[in-house]
Design brief:
The complex is a heterodimer of chains A (about 290) and B (about 240). Chain A is mostly helical. Chain A has helices at about 15-45, 50-60, 60-95, 100-110, 115-125, 130-140, 145-175, 175-185, 190-215, 220-225, 235-245, 250-275, 280-285. Chain A is globular. In chain B, helix 6 (about 170-185) links the parallel strand 7 (about 155-160) and strand 8 (about 190-195). Chain B has a domain at about 5-75 and about 155-240: Rossmann fold (3-Layer(aba) Sandwich), CATH 3.40.50. In chain B, the strands form two sheets. A six-stranded mixed β-sheet of chain B has the order 6-7-8-3-9-10, with helices on both faces. In chain B, strands 2-1-4-5 form a four-stranded antiparallel β-sheet, with helices on one face. In chain B, about 45% of the residues are buried. Chain B is globular and about 55 Å long. By secondary structure, chain B is α/β, with parallel strands linked by helices. Chain B has nine helices and ten strands. The chains are: A mainly alpha (about 290), B alpha/beta (about 240). The interface between A and B is medium-sized, with 22 and 29 residues. Chain B: Pfam families: ABC_tran (PF00005). Chain B: This is Sulfate transport system ATP-binding protein. Chain B: One of its GO terms (molecular function) is ABC-type sulfate transporter activity. Chain B: It comes from Gemmobacter caeni.
Chain lengths: ~290, ~240
């Protein structure tokens, strides 16, 4: 294909090779500068003094506690939000009621409210100085500066991910298949298990993966509610910040590298699943 | 089964979809609900199937009040407008769905389900497509699978919402005869919704012409053609 040929035709939606190259170049440069380079830098910093030093810093009691805490929080928050997300998406796409638009706005609230403000709200509600919080502390069940508060903050911050992923898919698929199942004699729960859930499973999976990544990475809200107690309520992102502020850069970046690896594994899992089930994904999206 | 519709009314919010309408459908008839969009024909069909509840009035099946029966209890074979086949299931699983969804006590054994599915596939003249997914079928094949799935539950009646709406003209003609044959073979009371007067006149024993939530005329095709009851009917069947 000769660009100069007087007889070469271009599709109306196509651009000239020069424009194409410039656009691709800008995208690659931007991606490399903003995503690729920092990623490499994290691992490079972590391994600056060799593998041994990096691994040793991870073997530290506080680092291990942070990793355990972060995984625990994700393991509690993600299933909770999966249930909430499915329930919210179901309600919004299958029923008409007053205040529906308001509810949709409410679901998006965690995206627009600063995480720090969200954290402060939880402290105000459940802190030892509040009525409810004071009573809970007296019962030996403190919320703030403890695991429940961190979970609460994480659930709040990551709430929209699964619901937002499910709502458009459920709107697009409509009610017809569920109604068909009902006319065939199936009960509500059976319809949910055999028709609704299989149809949304890929969207649900994406939502869960995104939700999980954010749950492990959340900083702002958790920083406020956790009290940053080393070895107890300091999650991975918080421990990383504390280590960095103490100029323990190898330890900070080693932990950061682990957090990054967890995120990369999540993305890898998504890609592998997409590859393996490409035909099924296609089958549930076209009809 | 004889179906009696007694002063059924339905409104969505402030808009009336059906003014009180009454209609008697004789057992074993093939009935067309004919009208333009917004005439209330689909609403009436969904009320018969139990997918929608009327605001007032009664539905009687063989003289018994069925108004309060749930969609599952009605045992109506329902064919949806775009067929609503379960896209993640094979044709076999689609047709077997209703039988597998039964409580254990009344559920046929797996071998019996397989036998019945095969018999239905033979009935719709697509004996070899059991392993395919809906996305791999043509429009006409999907319609027939939807019909087989509805027949699998041994329904008391057959309700079809624009069963030929999504098909091209040639397939449409073919499947009209197919529906007539299946209706005659099963003897089920069947009601189908259409906006195509030619389709209604050619296929149905009894045509119900509807407009703006009211029934304009009920009659045999030749009677409606010969003596349209209102100006609306005259215009609509002339179109």
């Amino acid at each position: 294909m000769s660009d100069a040929s007087a007889f070469s035709f271009r599709a109306p939606t196509d651009e000239s090779p020069l424009v194409r190259r410039v656009l691709i170049g800008v995208a690659v440069l931007g991606l490399g500068l903003l995503v690729g380079a920092p990623l490499v830098a994290v691992f490079a910093e972590a391994l600056k003094q060799g593998w041994l030093a990096a691994l040793k810093s991870l073997g530290n009691r506080d680092a291990l506690s942070a990793i355990r805490l972060t995984l625990t929080i994700a393991a509690i928050s993600v299933p909770l939000n999966a249930v909430f997300g499915i329930a919210a998406a179901w309600l919004i796409t299958r029923f008409d009621f007053r205040g529906k638009a308001f509810l949709i706005t409410l679901i998006d609230l965690p995206f627009s409210v600063s995480p720090v403000v969200a954290g402060l709200c939880i402290v105000l509600m459940f802190g030892a100085n509040s009525l409810l919080g004071g009573w809970l502390v007296a019962q030996g069940f403190p919320i703030v500066f403890a695991l429940p508060g961190i979970v609460l903050a994480t659930v709040f911050i990551t709430f929209p991910f699964i619901a937002r992923e499910l709502i458009p898919v459920m709107i697009e698929q409509g009610r017809a298949e569920e109604e068909a199942a009902l006319t065939l004699g199936a009960g509500g729960w059976h319809v949910f298990r055999t028709v609704t859930l299989p149809n949304i499973r890929w969207a649900l999976l994406y939502g869960v993966l995104l939700c999980n990544a954010r749950a492990m990475g959340e900083f702002g809200a958790v920083a406020v509610v956790s009290g940053k107690i080393r070895g107890q309520t300091a999650t991975m992102p918080i421990t990383i910040e504390m280590l960095y502020n103490e100029y323990l850069s190898v330890a900070a970046f080693s932990l950061a590298a682990v957090l990054t690896l967890l995120a990369l594994v999540t993305l890898l899992a998504k890609t592998v699943l997409e590859r393996r089930h490409a035909d099924q994904i296609a089958a549930t999206h076209r009809h | 089964m004889h179906i009696e519709i007694d002063e059924i009314a339905k409104s969505f919010g402030t808009t009336a979809a059906l003014h009180p309408v009454s209609l008697s459908i004789p057992s074993g008839a093939l009935v067309a609900l004919l009208g333009p969009s917004g005439s209330g024909k689909t609403t009436l069909l969904r009320i018969l199937g139990g997918l929608e509840y009327p605001n007032s009035g009664r539905v009687l099946f063989d003289g018994e009040d069925a108004t309060g029966l749930t969609v599952q209890e009605r045992r109506a074979g329902f064919v949806f407008q775009s067929y609503a086949l379960f896209r993640h299931m094979t044709v076999f699983e689609n047709i077997a769905y209703g039988l597998k969804a039964r409580p254990r006590a009344t559920r046929p054994p797996a071998a019996e389900i397989a036998r019945r599915v095969q018999r239905l596939l033979d009935l719709i003249q697509l004996p070899d497509i059991a392993a395919r997914y809906p996305a791999q079928l043509s429009g006409g094949q999907r319609q027939r699978v939807a019909l087989a799935r509805a027949l699998a539950i041994e329904p008391r009646m057959l309700l079809l919402d624009e069963p030929f709406g999504a098909l091209d003209a040639r397939v449409r003609k073919e499947l009209r005869q197919g529906l007539r044959d299946i209706h005659d073979a099963t003897g089920l009371t069947s009601v189908f919704v259409t906006h195509d007067q030619e389709e209604a006149m050619e296929l149905a024993d009894l045509v119900v012409v509807m407009s703006m939530g009211r029934i304009e005329q009920v009659g045999r095709p030749q009677d409606i053609r010969a003596r349209p009851a209102t100006a609306f009917v005259r215009d609509f069947i002339a179109a």
